[in-house]
Amino acid sequence: MTLRPALVNGSPIHVQCADWYSEDHVAANERHLADVAHTSSTADLMAPRADGPPKLLAFARLVLDAFGDEEARTPQVTVDIEDIHGMYCGPTVRTNWPTT
Question: Is the pLDDT of residue 84 over 80?
């Protein structure tokens, strides 16, 4: 974990971030400290197509909510699949499928 600069409602602060974190907290400029979340860059699953460029089927990333409940404070794998909102795999390999 490292300290990185962030803006929260325009005020400069430093927040503790996991080493795999890839977003910019300063550019995000969240309104509340509790809105500062951590995500990694994505790993994309592409399908080749004979008639054009590859098509994105799904992508995965790590997500950590430093201000959430105990499970949210543990890194989780998020998988977003085409036409499905997302699947979240936490440390207990539990999956949540959104209902909307």
Answer: no
Please name which of 50, 58, 92 lies closest in space to residue 78, comparing C-alpha atoms: 58
Question: Residue 52: pLDDT above 60?
Answer: yes
The total domain count for the chain is 1
Q: Which residues of 11-32 are buried (b: 16+ CB within 10 A; e: fewer)?
A: eeeebebeeebeeebeeeeeee
- C-alpha separations of 57 from 33, 60, 76, 82, 97 in Å: 33, 11, 20, 6, 17
Q: What is the pTM of this model?
A: 0.62
Greatest Cα pair distance, the chain, in angstroms, is 51
